[in-house]
Specification:
Elements (H helix, E strand, L loop, with lengths): L2 H22 L3 H5 L4 H9 L3 H7 L9 E8 L20 H17 L1 E8 L2 H10 L7 E5 H4 L26 H6 L16 H4 L2 E6 H6 L5 H7 L4 H11 L15 E5 L3 H8 L5 E3 L5 E3 L4 H14 L5 E3 L8 H9 L3 E7 L1 H5 L7 E4 L21 E4 L7 H15 L3 H14 L3 H12 L5 H5 L6 H4 L9 H25 L2
Helix pairs in contact: 1-19, 5-17, 5-18, 13-14
Length: about 500
Amino acid sequence: MKINKTRSLAVLLLAAALLGTSCGGGTAAEAETTGGGTEAQTAAETLSPLDQTVAALPQKDFGGYEFTIMDRNSEHTPWHTYDVYAESETGDAINDAVFQRNRLIEEHFNIKIKEEGVYGPVDNMQKLIIAGDDTIDVFTDGLNALTKLTTGNMLYDINDIAEIQFDQPWWDQQIRTELSIGGKCFFATGDISIMDNEGTWCILFNKKLIEDYDLDNPYALVEGGTWTIDKMYEMAKAVAKDVDGDGKMTGSDQFGFLTEVYNIYALWVGGNNMIIQKDADDMPVSAMLNERAATVYDKVLEMQFDANVSAVAGSAVFPAYSDMNVCFTEGRGLFDYGAMALISDFRESETDFGILPSPKLDEAQEMYRNTFSPYNMTAYAIPATVGDAARTGMILESMAQVSQYILTPAYMDVSLKGKFVRDAESEDMIELVLATRSYDLGAIFQWGTSFSIFNGAAKSRIGTFASQVEKSTKALDNAITKYVDQLNAAE
């Protein structure tokens, strides 16, 4: 994919969103054509897209109802949700966008949006649902955590709530299609949230090291389709250096690749692989046992566990993630692979960095593919205890629609690109990463032992991928069958 086409993709996506608004629930302009006359139609056409969307929202008065959202937001939560509620305007773009969106929805429907911040929403919600407590209207948590409640009649199938226009572009269509099972989907995110983007994986690179070592321009590699695992490893090896000359790589040295255990899976996905695919009936089936998957796995392990080149968070070199972050901000790491949240985390760093997608297996691979943290990327779910699903769906749908004109621009244009991103090319790369993000049921549900092939990997596993998959296949198939039986039993 050409970099200069990425901006065009963003424009097309925005155009699709605008078209979806006019075709989905009907805009104010559309409504006026049914009898309002030319003057009314002209007046409607002068409204901004946001005003048109608000004008087209359902006209309902919920009499001061407290619409309560539970999220990950406590003093002990390492991954805070900050796109649900804001007490007041503070001058921060995200905070103020959340505040303005919520006030708009509150005034339109005569409700009060309330946040219930807890350490673990899913565990709290499970207790409330079992007890029949209906005080929570909607909640959000990491995707992997949410899977715990997808059986046993704990959650609404988003597709069953008519007020939610789930096929519209303000909802993430990849989640709708890739995380459904038998036509059921219990998760939703999109413009209503920025935590899905924050939890998406991307690669940061040190521009000065690229220049100092006379390496290829990474942006040109991406544009030319030659940004591959082999190329990344080659560049990482060129930069790695025993700075203090003690004969071993320690936390004070210079590394080519700063990584973590999860990145074995993330890079494997980048090579165009998935643990689970779906059959014609939208049911999950294993997709791991093939030559390509084994090839990418071996290449990733070789780079990940090359102690002279790579440093893994949580290892003796960098016991804490923060230690590894210091290494990058001090300019001693070429590539740092992790959540997009790192972009804002490094905003004060003097190290000039750019942003890249995950590398492809080879030049023949048609497109880049990117993934996310199944633990930190959040989505919304609606508890089965909600008595008025139409009201919940209507409010959530409205929040999503208006967020595309308030929250998303505040995050993408004002905060991410305006404050934290350091060059125009990185803006293109962010759009590319988000446009090629895909969801794997195998990473979300982690059925059987298949995911441990990645999280439990070691360099000694090179050449053993096929045998590991064969050993885990029975457990995976049994786990899928058990889950599907539980899902069907809830009908």
